[in-house]
Design a protein that fits this description.
The protein is of the alpha+beta class. The protein is 30% helix and 35% strand. The chain contains two helices and four strands, in the order βαββαβ. A hairpin with a 5-residue loop joins strand 2 and strand 3. Helix 1 packs across helix 2. The longest helix is centred in the N-terminal third of the chain and has 18 residues, at 15-32. It is globular, with a radius of gyration of 13 Å.
Length: 97
């Protein structure tokens, strides 16, 4: 599998909508497509218009598999970019309480 960055812009209006999509995404990826896509992590971002978007890190066999997964979940995959290399300067910080 290759590593990809997926940008999902202005996809959710509320945290509850995002959480529901995340649950569907994990279930579909883990149960229906485990040999095709693997969700690694996501960063939730507040878009300029107040909606929520994400920057997701996935491993997948192809961009087509990522698009198929997104379609099954019912969420966008606006941009899919292959990762050429990973440079970790620091681990992700813990979320604020």
């Amino acid at each position: 599998m290759n590593t990809y960055v997926i940008r999902r812009r202005t996809a959710w209006k509320t945290p509850a909508e995002l959480e529901a999509a995340a649950a569907r995404s994990a279930r579909i990826g883990n149960e229906d497509m485990p040999d095709q896509v693997r969700w690694i992590r996501s960063y939730v971002v507040e878009e300029a218009n107040g909606t929520l978007g994400t920057v997701c890190i996935y491993q997948a066999v192809s961009p087509t598999a990522i698009r198929d997964h997104a379609q099954r979940v019912g969420m966008p995959a606006d941009e899919i970019t292959p990762v050429a290399r990973t440079v970790v300067v620091r681990e992700d910080p813990a979320e604020a309480a």
